[in-house]
Design brief:
Number of strands: 0
Strand content: under 5%
Largest sheet: none
Number of domains: 1
Oligomer: single chain
Number of helices: 5
Order of helices and strands: HHHHH
């Protein structure tokens, strides 16, 4: 019974933190996508794509942290890990793919893949800047 409750609690915290980070990334990506596409994009779809992206990203980063044994501060060793860098590249690819596939413009056409890459790169740059300043 305690294992079930632990798994349920972990899933709820994973969803809560993913939604907080997704809102952060969506607030970065939405104006960039509006600017690069020169058209309105649907914010709730931007948030959905960012939510799925952060859920996948958190699983990847936590998996690397558990694999390398860096689950407690300081995280400097984790941030300089080659495996984490590779996982972050994979995470950026997944994010660009999700943004490209899930976000329509107001005229019901998809955003361009280059716009999705710009939005992901800006979000990752700001997020990594925040992560390194807190570590």
């Amino acid at each position: 019974m305690t294992t079930l409750l632990t798994l349920l609690s972990t899933a709820l915290w994973w969803l809560l933190y993913s939604s907080i980070f997704a809102l952060f990334f969506a607030l970065i990506a939405w104006p960039l996508l509006r600017w690069s596409e020169r058209a309105n994009v649907v914010f709730n779809r931007v948030y959905l794509a960012c939510l799925l992206w952060t859920m996948v990203g958190m699983v990847l980063v936590v998996g690397v942290a558990l694999h390398e044994g860096h689950v407690r501060p300081p995280y400097n060793a984790l941030l300089t890990s080659g495996l984490l860098r590779g996982v972050l590249v994979l995470d950026m690819f997944v994010g660009a793919l999700l943004l490209w596939r899930l976000i329509p413009r107001v005229d019901a056409r998809r955003i361009r893949p280059t716009s999705a890459c710009i939005a992901v790169a800006a979000g990752m740059a700001i997020g990594f800047g925040v992560a390194t300043s807190l570590a």
